Amino acid sequence: MDTQDTLQPQVRPTASRPLLGMTILVVEDSRFTCETLRLMCLRSGARIRRADCLASARRHLQVYRPSAAVIDMGLPDGSGLDLIAELSRATPRVGVIIGLSGDDRAETEALAAGADGFLGKPLDSLAQFQETVLSALPPAAVPAGPRSLTEEAVSPDRVAFRDDMSHVAALLEQRQDGATIDYVVQFLGGVARSARDYTLERAASDLARSRCQGKTRHEKVARLMQMVHARIESRAAI
Predict the structure, then answer these.
(1) Phi-psi region of 45 (alpha: psi -120 to 50; beta: other; left: phi over 0)
(2) Which residues are modified to 4-aspartylphosphate (predicted)?
C-alpha cells in the first residue's frame, strides 16, 4: 500500500507553482467540474486523481494517501460530508480536506464535519483555489517569500459540459423515480451554476422545489429533459 502520496521533500513548491509536489484527490461526479479542477491543479503544479463517487474514493484511499482531498457534497451514492468526517478522523489524516458545493450554505456543514476549507461553485478563480489549499497547509509546505496572486480564470472545454448533459439524459431515460430525479436536479443545479447556464439552473431549482413539496411535476421533468437534449445537440453548449 502506498500511504505516502504526499508532498515530497525533494520537490519544493515555487511562487508560480505553489502546489508543486502535491497530489489532490478530487471526489466529484461532474466531468465539467473535474476538468476545471484538473486545469487548476495543472497550473498550480499539483497532480490530480479523480473519483466520481464515495465508493470509488474509498477504493482510492485504500491504496494511497493524497496530500489533499477536494470533496463534493452531493454524490450519486451519498453525501460528501460522510467522507469528510471519515478523513478528518482518520490516522494518519489527509493533510488538507476541502468541501465543494454549488450551495454556499453547505460551507458551514463541511467545516463542522471536519473540512479545512470550502470552495463554492462556480469554480473559475485559480488564485482562490490555490489560496484555499495553501491556507490549510503547514508553513513548511508553503512557498517562502512573496507570491503574487494570479487573476487567471480557468475555463474547461465545452465537451465536458456536454458529457454531463449526456449523463443526465441517460439517467432520466432509464428511470424517473423520486430518488433519480432528486439526484438529477442536485447534479444539474451544480453543473449549470458552474457553467453559468442560469436558464438551466432555474429549471433545475424549480423542479427541486416541487420535490421538496412532495410533488413530481412530469411536465417539469419533460421540460428539463428537453433543455438537456438541446444542450447535447448544440455546438455552443455554454
Answers:
(1) left
(2) 72
CA distance 208 to 185: 6
Residue with cell 417539469: 220
Residue pair 19/44 in contact (Cβ under 8 Å)? The answer is yes
Strands in the chain per DSSP E: 23-27, 47-51, 68-72, 74-75, 78-79, 96-101, 117-120
pLDDT in tens, 186-214: 999 999 999 999 999 999 999 988 888 87
Residue extents of the structural domains in the chain: 23-141, 158-233
Q: Which residue has the cell 449526456?
A: 166
**CA 8/CA 204 separation, integer angstroms:** 43
Predicted model pTM = 0.88
| Residue 24 pLDDT | 98
Q: Which of 198, 196, 195, 188 is nearest to 229 (CA)?
A: 188
Residues contacting residue 144 through CB under 8 Å, at least 6 positions apart:
none
**Alpha helices, DSSP H only, in 158-197?**
158-174, 178-194
Kindly report, residue by residue over 77-107, the tens digit of the pLDDT: 999 999 999 999 999 999 999 999 998 889 9
Query: Is the pLDDT reported for residue 153 higher than 80?
Result: no
Helices and strands (DSSP H and E) totals, the chain: 9, 7
